[in-house]
Amino acid sequence: MLGIELQVNQGVDLADSMEELAQLVKTAGGKVMERVTQARGQIDSTFYVGKGKIQELTKLIQNKDVNLIVANDELNSKQIANIEAVTGTKTLIGPLLFWIFFARQSKTREGKLQVELAQQKYRMSHLKGLGIVMSRTGGGIGTRGRVRKSWKRTAG
């Protein structure tokens, strides 16, 4: 588990918050191997925690055969990808554990679908990548896309 205690106290005790997350991990069927925390002035935009703490986490993962990191806060997709790239370990955020737990507890088909829908809506806000590339207009009715431009060059 991974958490940060910000110097600007936001009314949340890190120890209590990490304990709640540990209980959620256990309820979802996991085992807490280690709790890694860091006191910081602000959240690191690249890794959530500092580079030194990421290196410490990587060593812990290798030594204890950890297969999942659960972060105590909301991480953006870039932070998740960076942590996974450095540590080589799948990274989840606390709220996704709720969905995993509810998915396991759902008995009816409708209940499972509702949990899946809620989970996908939540994940949608964390998607990154091809959206920018795919949003470019590249052709269509009334537009001059790449194909038409190259056709005019070869025809003329």
SSE layout and pairing:
Blueprint: E1 2-6, H1 14-27, E2 36-40, H2 51-64, E3 69-71, H3 77-87, E4 91-93, H4 94-105, H5 109-124, H6 131-134, H7 146-155
Parallel strand pairs: 1-2, 3-4
Brief characterization of the structure:
The chain is 52% helix and 10% strand. With 156 residues, the chain is mainly α. A two-stranded parallel sheet has the order 1-2. The chain has a two-stranded parallel sheet with strand order 3-4.
List keywords for this structure.
156 residues, two-stranded parallel ribbon, 7 helices
Structural summary, described in words:
The longest helix is centred in the C-terminal third of the chain and has 16 residues, at 109-124. The protein contains seven helices and four strands, in the order E-H-E-H-E-H-E-H-H-H-H. The mean pLDDT is 80. Helix 1 (14-27) runs parallel beside helix 4 and helix 4 packs antiparallel against helix 5. Helix 1 links the parallel strand 1 and strand 2. The strands form two sheets. A two-stranded parallel ribbon has the order 1-2. The protein has a two-stranded parallel sheet with strand order 3-4. The N and C termini lie far apart (64 Å). It has helices at 14-27, 51-64, 77-87, 94-105, 109-124, 131-134, 146-155; strands at 2-6, 36-40, 69-71, 91-93. The protein is 52% helix and 10% strand. The chain has 156 residues and is mainly alpha-helical.
